[in-house]
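tool_call: predict_structure(chain=1)
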Amino acid sequence: MKVVAEAYLGKTVTNAEVPAYFSDSQHQATKDAGTIASFIVLRLISREDFDNRMVSHFIAEFKLKHKDISENKRAVCRLCLHNACECATHTLSSSAHASIETDLLYEGIDLYTSVTCASFEELNTDLFHGTMEPVEKALWNAKLDNSQIYDIVQGTDIQVTILSGDKSENVQDWPLLDVTPLFLGIETAGRVMTVLIKLNPTIPTKKTQTFTTYLMKVEVTFDIDASGIPNVSAVGKSTGKKNKITITKDKGCLRKEDIECMIQEAENYKAKDEKPQDMGSSKDSLKSYAFNMKATVEDEKLQGKINDEEKQKILDTCNELINWLNNNQTAEKEEFEHQ
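tool_result:
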C-alpha cells in the first residue's frame, strides 16, 4: 500500500495516520505493520468504517444472486466497489436513496443495486448505537447536555495536518484532543489499586507519585503517549536505580527484533521485485519499438519516401529483433537496453 500511495502521489510517503478499530494487541500490531512498511505512524484513530460494512453487505448480496467472492481477494479489494459504497454513503447524507454501480465485478458480472437511508441505518444499527455511550459520557464529563451542542467539527483531516507539523494559521486554532478511557494505577499494600491516571484525561499525559515500601521510597511515573500506549517507570529514591516498562501487550505481537528483521526482509523482497519490473519495462519498450518501426515502414503513406532496399533492411532488422526477444524472454535489463 505504501508503494501504491507513493505512485499515486508522485512522492515519497513516510508519515501515516491509520484508521483502526482494534483491541490493544491489534492496535500495537497495526503500528508494527506501519513500521515494517517504513511509515512513521503518527497516530492510530479508533473507528470502524461504514463503507467497509456496506462493502461486506453487497458482497453477501452478490453471493445470493451470483457467486461467493468473499475469498477472492482480487474482486473484494477492487477499489471500484469500495469507491461506489463510499459515494453512496455521501449521497445518503442528503438523499433518501443511492445507487451502487460496479461494472465487471467478477467473471464479467456487473453489480447494479441500490441502498436507502432506512436500509443503511439498519445495516449499521450497532455502530450508531455504539456511538451513543461515548457521546453521553463525553457530555456528562463536560457537564453539558444536547441543547448546548451547536456544532460538530470533522477533525480527522485537521488532526493529520497538525501532526504532520503544519504551522499555518488555518489549523492553529483547532486543538484536537484524545483521551484514555480507563483508570490506570499500581497495586499497593492490601492488593489495593492506587490510581495515578484518572478517567478521561487528554493524552499524551504524565503523572508521578511517590510510594513508600518497607525498604525505601519509590517514585512511580505513568506516561501515556499520543497513541494511548502507557510507559511506566519506577525510581528508588535512596539508590537512584531505575526500571522502566512500555506496556505493549506483547502476547501475539511482534518484538522489536522481529520488526527490524521484517523491515530488512521487506527491503530484500522489494529489491527482488523491482528487478523483474525493470527488466519487464525494458523488454516491453524494446518490443514496442520493433513492432512500431515495422508498422511504420509497412505503412502505405511511406511508399516512395524510402526505396525497397532500405525498407527490406529495416524490416529484416525488426524481424531479427522480434525473434531475439522471443528467444531471450529472461535476458537481463542491460541486454534489452543494449539491443
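agent: The two ends are 35 Å apart (CA to CA). Proceeding to next step.
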